[in-house]
Amino acid sequence: MKYSQQIGAALSLLVILACFLPWSFIPSLNATLTGMYTATTDFGKPGILHIAFSIIAFGLFILPKLWSKRTNIFICAINLAWAFKNFMLYSMCSAGDCQQKKVGIYIVLISSILMIVMAMLPKINVKEK
């Protein structure tokens, strides 16, 4: 694709933005969780790792080197695995109390899937002999 690297860079910025959007709501605690604020749960701050991987991926999407395109597939795969883990964690039921999924967790998951697709479609100029 001609614009796969620009789309991938924009998606990495979208993942960073989505880390600050609501991911889920726990009715029993009356708490809205984001990637950076998890209230009284033991979830930590999973958005920090998403932000770190997205910053690295953004740089690798912009850098026009072959090694950066290969490394970007690895970074985006780890980001996708982390997004899937967070989606499962933030959408599970615990002790009969089910969390309500919000828009942020969907944006992170879908953007991470599209990031790895864009990482696998780099525009590489081939030198002719």
TrEMBL record:
Residues annotated as transmembrane: 7-26, 46-64, 71-91, 103-121
Keyword Transmembrane: yes
Protein's name according to its UniProt entry: DUF4293 family protein
UniProt keyword terms in alphabetical order: Membrane, Transmembrane, Transmembrane helix
Species for this entry: Arachidicoccus ginsenosidivorans
Superkingdom: Bacteria
Organism lineage string: Bacteria, Pseudomonadati, Bacteroidota, Chitinophagia, Chitinophagales
